[in-house]
Amino acid sequence: MGFSAALVEHLWFARTPFLILAYFVGVALVRRAPHVERYHMRAAGTLVIAHIIAAVIGAGQDYEDYDDTIADVAALSFGLLAYLSLGMTIAFRVLLPHVGFALPRILIDIFTFVGVLIVFIIVGKRAGFSVAGLITTSAVLTAVIGFSLQDTLGNVMGGLSVQLDKSLQVGDWVNFGPGQPTGRITEIRWRYTAIETRNWDTVIIPNGMLVKSQITILGKRAGEPLQTRRTVEFFVDFRTPPTEVIAAVENALRRDPVPRMALEPQPHVLFIGVRDSFAQYAVRYWLTDLAADDPPDSATRIRIWFALRRANISMSIPASTVFLTPNTAEREQEKATAELARRIEALASVDLFRGLPEKQRESLAGSLVHTPFAVGESVTREGDHDDGLFMLVEGEAAVRIGTGNDEREVARLVPGQFFGEMSLMTGEARTASVVAATDMVCYRIDKPAFQHVLRETPAIADQIAEVLVMRRTALTAVRDEREEVKRRRVETAKQDLLGRIRGFFGIHDEP
Predict the structure, then answer these.
(1) CA distance 86 to 41
(2) CA nearest neighbour of 249 among 316, 318, 313, 317
(3) pLDDT in tens, 143-185
């Protein structure tokens, strides 16, 4: 028998044609799956070449009448390992991912190890040695090696548990706590997990440490898009009303979000606190691209700066400022005089107090209480019992009646108007709720302050009662009423209110 006939016989006996066919089929499938690493097919190709070389050597030994057992066993070993490599690649890296089911890398390695063990048993039987005896005699050696490599085995088991429970997956952004790296998981191996940070660094974390640590997975929430919340702080002069700062910045960010800023939830601004010489605020928004955090933060700070400048709001001075103001008696008197003038002007703008003599008006002005309100705050509530009258100086107020879902707005108050007069004059419960429609400033007059004025000038109660009843009558008068009926109603109501005012303040008619 010639060498060619011996070679064909060995190749056919080793099933080499089927192995070569399987290899080229695998290459064709892998080319259609670009996500598969090419080194898998290179490994299979190397095993196929080794199988062919072993078969050729065996054919040559057979041709020269040498013992070809070793060559045949080698050809069988390389052939089975090539089949195993091709099968694992096609099944677990091509077909299963194609149908949407991808196994963790560690599980693929386990199946490969089991397959190699089976090949080892088959080759052992073919070669004529006992695999069971080899395993028994190596048990002690295995125990010694396992004891010395317990840390490595702990990392291996940690990686296996992470892969099996899928608590961490490739692509997750993770943080291990303050001072620890933040990055994206790129690979979970037997011994370690690789994390790429935003600094283009790769951090290798042993799996044993991984399963013992508390880990935060950034932006991962069931049923929600991948995004995480960011906080950008800024500082403003504390004398600026917080509602103006919040409105200016929120409007700018919501109307035109910066790149990588989520539309939902919307960004919002918080008033965090007041420090030594400035107010501290924070913008909170949701970042959609976890790989880039600093650029959106920078763009947000730029947007804040321009929004505050447009609103004529000054940011805090980044330094300690000492204000030296001579606190002299003349300065205090100047400030008191200016404030008193503002209060007297406010009283003069209200028809309820326009008839007061100048002396009583100045006395009442000194008792006014400066009361600012933020938008949305309730100034009075329907049904409450208190004796305060409010004069609106700045802003707007909404008058509402009803409670809960039945509450509705019935009027708007502007600077120069007042409310709460019936509670001050008669002690009646509030008949409506008044809520700040904008930031607003009021002056408040309570019963003790006005009682002093009435006791000094009791006749003023008659004028006030007339003003109050005219306001009430104007709201309830009917257009087709005759003038005589209207006058009698005004006079009757005036006398009734005058008696109630005098009784409430303890003023009796002079004999």
Answers:
(1) 7
(2) 313
(3) 555 544 455 555 666 666 666 667 788 888 988 877 777 889 8
Q: Judge contact between 396 and 413, C-beta under 8 A.
A: yes
pLDDT reading at 242 higher than 80: yes
The pairing of strands 268-274 and 216-218 is: unpaired
Per-residue pLDDT of 9-49, as tens digits, reads: 666 776 777 778 888 887 788 777 766 666 667 778 888 88
Cβ–Cβ < 8 Å for 291, 198: yes
Q: Which residues of 183-203 are buried (b: 16+ CB within 10 A; e: fewer)?
A: bbbeebbbbbbbbbeeeeeeb
User: Taking 60 as the threshold, does the pLDDT of residue 482 lie above it?
Assistant: no
Q: Is the pLDDT of residue 350 over 50?
A: yes
Which fold would CATH assign to domain 151-218?
SH3 type barrels. (2.30.30)
Element (H, E) at 155: helix 150-165
3-state secondary structure of 360: helix
Residue identified by tokens 């008792």 is 367
Overall pTM surpassing 0.70 (yes/no): no
pLDDT band, very low/low/confident/very high, at 479 (cuts 50, 70, 90) = very low
C-alpha to C-alpha distance for 72 and 58, rounded to whole angstroms: 6
Amino acid letter for position 215: I
What does the mean pLDDT of the chain come to?
78
What does the pLDDT look like over 401-427, one tens digit per residue? 887 777 888 888 888 888 887 887 778
Q: Both tokens of residue 338? A: 């200016």
CATH topology of domain 228-310: GMP Synthetase; Chain A, domain 3 (3.30.300)
CATH of region 330-505: 2.60.120.10
288: Cα separation from own chain's centroid: 11
Contact predicate 392/413, CB 8 Å: yes
Strands 369-373 and 397-401 come out as: unpaired
Looking at the chain, how many residues does it have? 511
Query: So where are the chain's domains?
Result: 3-137, 151-218, 228-310, 330-505
What are the residues whose beta carbons fall under 8 Å from the beta carbon of 313, sequence distance 6 or more?
236, 237, 240, 244, 245, 248
Relative orientation angle of helices 105-127 and 69-88, to the nearest 10 degrees: 160
CA 233, 235, 236, 237 dihedral sign is: positive
Percentage helix, strand, coil, to 5, in the chain? 50, 15, 30
pLDDT band at 131 (very low <50, low <70, confident <90, very high): low
- Residue 153: C-alpha distances to residues 5, 75, 193 (Å): 51, 33, 15
